[in-house]
């Protein structure tokens, strides 16, 4: 076969051993916490029937779904007319019946519906798997990336929302982050505001404008609101909302006045208060002072969230949100199972990776790599080094014998490049004395040890 | 959007929490052992450029590669002629430039070539990821399945081969298997036999026929060999090979006589002897008595293996091979990096799963699930139960409070279906006495404990 110069498909990445160690550090930290809160892992297939995915992500989303070409003579049933017209869009359903997972939420909804007779509600699951999107790749945006989702369906208790705040707090703290905000909003509050000003269709415009308060000041925001279709009368109704400041409790008090006439708005405020109350009962009221922040400009996922909305940002590094989520009252309706409420959050593993890297928060080394390399001075010594190698591994120590008696320099550079912390130098003298020379690759120090002491030291 | 009845794409599977626990048990066992032998994890993208994959798996393999349709107006550059002809095969390269990973070996070769300046040889890696094949699904055969590969490139030492035998032995033993065979052959021995009888093109026919010795007897094998193109003269030359019996050492002795005139054949025998010698030095000679078996009918991967060939079979369950591999002298040549030798083995995780299931070898329970459910009798009790819930989790205990005060029966059936081992029953009496009722879901026994004793018991 002809030799070709290999390359990666656009927007995809290899993960080297060092990167995998770091990624596993993130995944394992998250998994441990998810399990502690009663969430169980599931996995769904990488591809789904195309009909399962289309129509769930909007027209733009549909375009970004990777379709898989049917196997065999895929054109045999394709309508001649569409081929003649070169009608790419209309032809898809004739030549492709499968597509790569675009997110973890729709496959999860399918899972719940298909397994409804075997699962016990509330069903609490987490899922850490790659998803694929035909986006234009750019710095920090890939066509294959991992999502870490944790969701519960079948429980309307706001304890779930409070626990997601704790999960975010515990996970990010455990990963070493010190200054981050878990922003909270409620779709019903936004609906209430829309009701009060009578402009439901302008909710997104409103939140976009208000969000700029720090940058463009009050006059700027008012000007932008007018440009976006609000009237002077709307503006005066909106003033307490635009200037919403202070502690979470102060904000709630102001909102209550503004939304006094809106049943749904008050319901939203009550939901937020209940979440805060759960945090207090859990002994975590201190999170409300700084870390958790009521932010009514948070309009993430407005199309599908029906209750609380979450978004997490770090203040230590310039970076978009590193997590988010919310409650959707009808997750599984798209597959015919009505009235099953769900709430969930997601961790942006790739962004968290970048944040930890920038802040140098990855542990300096962990259990994932070889602990000791036995230098191979002479294959004749293998009668001694191989039983030792076996003994080390029996003791659970990750160990290697360099597989050939090449120059010492080459063997040391192998240990260096694999960041192996210890090297064992065993020559004739060591064999006869039983005192082995162990070199610490970090400090350069060397010490003599017998086998028992060596195993104790490396264990 | 219209509601549709959801289904899985053909040949794919969901993994439930219970299945994920079991799969993770297998993966974690393998990973721990791979690392102990100095192998590091890497991952490669799910899709590769189509040109990276085509031509590597033979014509049949190429047909089984899942191709991904180009995004956007994918027909715009498609030749009209091919569309008119409905030429599915020729059109592929115009409308698809990416394809799903078919195995882990070709992406690994690509990885090595692309990262050659940053990796230090020998490069020892393992990789556990799904692969996709457009096979016709059937019992035990899926279109998405996991491969667990462990390979080293850049070392021709036969110590690597010996260590793979130990890795198989240790991994399968650790998973609970008691009776399995690690079969070993060497491509050079097969080449030697072909040289001796002068029929290199009939090697596969020969091994297929000889493999039937137990079923059809010596006369049957001889008859089949004649049908497959061997002559009476070939048969007499082949008799010692057909009737090869006895211990591994006896087999080697017979082969040495038959292959005395073949340089390559003797080289193959020498390689096997060296592997056995390494096992002896490692203190594992006893594996040669029963578990490791020289089997010259083993012709797996004859197209690409150049040295040792491995295959693993369990004798406890009716099942095809649960692992295999071998040495390939020119792994990366397909991508222009010549003369880099590699050797590796693979574990069939899906088949191992089925074997462990059939033999009931999965651990009865492990750390992956919720340890205790606090029953929710009355939301008024949450002032007591929520701080307790927080305290349990702080102690690292996976715990849940049922999120609503529904009927006890429903809460108990939730605990049952999640196989939660303990349930905490906390009513007014327990709150005032501080003595909590803990029910063992398995035995039905109930005991009274204070918080400290509870945490000690569940930790």
From TrEMBL, chains A, B:
Keywords: Aminoacyl-tRNA synthetase, ATP-binding, Cytoplasm, Ligase, Nucleotide-binding, Protein biosynthesis. SUPFAM superfamilies: Class II aaRS ABD-related, Class II aaRS and biotin synthetases. Pfam families: HGTP_anticodon, tRNA-synt_His. Its EC number is 6.1.1.21. It catalyses: tRNA(His) + L-histidine + ATP = L-histidyl-tRNA(His) + AMP + diphosphate + H(+). GO terms for molecular function: ligase activity. It is found in: Cytoplasm. It comes from the Bacteria. PANTHER family: HISTIDINE--TRNA LIGASE, HISTIDYL-TRNA SYNTHETASE. Belongs to the class-II aminoacyl-tRNA synthetase family. The keyword Zinc does not apply. Homodimer. It is an enzyme of class 6 (ligase). InterPro entries: aa-tRNA-synth_II, aa-tRNA-synth_II/BPL/LPL, Anticodon-bd, Anticodon-bd_dom_sf, His-tRNA-ligase, HisRS-like_core, HisRS/HisZ, HisRS_anticodon. The keyword Cell division does not apply. Residues 1-364 form the Aminoacyl-transfer RNA synthetases class-II family profile domain. PROSITE patterns: AA_TRNA_LIGASE_II. This is Histidine--tRNA ligase.
């Amino acid at each position: 076969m002809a030799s070709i110069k290999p390359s990666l498909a656009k927007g995809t990445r290899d993960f080297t051993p060092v990167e995998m160690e770091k990624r596993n550090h993130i995944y394992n930290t998250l998994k441990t916490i998810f399990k502690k809160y009663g969430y169980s892992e599931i996995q769904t297939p990488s591809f789904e029937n195309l009909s399962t995915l289309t129509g769930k992500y909007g027209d733009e989303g549909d375009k970004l779904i990777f379709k898989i070409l049917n196997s065999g003579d895929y054109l045999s049933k394709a309508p001649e007319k569409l081929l003649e017209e070169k009608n790419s869009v209309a032809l898809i359903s004739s030549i492709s019946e499968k597509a790569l997972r675009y997110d973890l939420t729709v496959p999860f909804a399918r899972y719940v519906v298909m397994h409804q007779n075997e699962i016990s509600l509330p069903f609490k699951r987490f899922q850490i798997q790659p998803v694929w999107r035909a986006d234009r790749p750019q710095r920090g945006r890939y066509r294959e990336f991992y999502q870490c989702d944790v969701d519960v369906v079948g429980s309307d208790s706001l304890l779930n929302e409070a626990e997601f705040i704790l999960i975010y707090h515990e996970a990010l703290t455990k990963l070493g982050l010190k200054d981050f905000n878990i922003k909270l909003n409620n779709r019903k509050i936004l609906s209430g505001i829309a009701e009060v000003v009578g402009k439901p269709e302008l909710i997104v415009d409103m939140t976009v404008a208000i969000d700029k308060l720090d940058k463009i000041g009050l006059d700027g925001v008012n000007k932008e609101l007018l440009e976006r279709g609000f009237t002077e009368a709307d503006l005066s109704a909106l003033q307490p909302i635009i200037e919403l400041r202070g502690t979470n409790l102060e904000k709630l008090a102001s909102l209550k006045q503004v939304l006094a006439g809106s049943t749904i708005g008050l319901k939203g405020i009550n939901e937020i208060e209940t979440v805060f109350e759960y945090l207090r009962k859990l002994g975590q009221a201190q999170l409300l002072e700084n870390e958790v922040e009521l932010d009514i400009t948070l309009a993430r996922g407005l199309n599908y969230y029906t209750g609380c909305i979450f978004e997490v940002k770090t203040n230590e590094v310039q970076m978009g949100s590193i997590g988010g989520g919310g409650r959707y009252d009808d997750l599984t309706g798209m597959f015919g199972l009505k009235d099953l409420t769900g709430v969930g959050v997601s961790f942006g593993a790739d962004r968290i990776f970048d944040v930890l890297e920038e802040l140098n928060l990855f542990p300096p080394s962990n259990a994932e790599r070889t602990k000791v390399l036995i230098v191979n001075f002479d294959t004749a010594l293998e009668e001694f080094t191989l039983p030792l190698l076996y003994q080390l591994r029996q003791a659970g120590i990750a160990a290697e014998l360099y597989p050939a008696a090449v120059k010492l320099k080459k063997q040391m550079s192998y240990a260096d490049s694999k960041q192996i912390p210890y090297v064992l130098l065993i020559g004739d003298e060591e064999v006869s004395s039983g005192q082995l020379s162990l070199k610490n690759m970090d400090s350069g120090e060397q010490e003599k040890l017998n086998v028992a002491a060596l195993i104790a030291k490396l264990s």
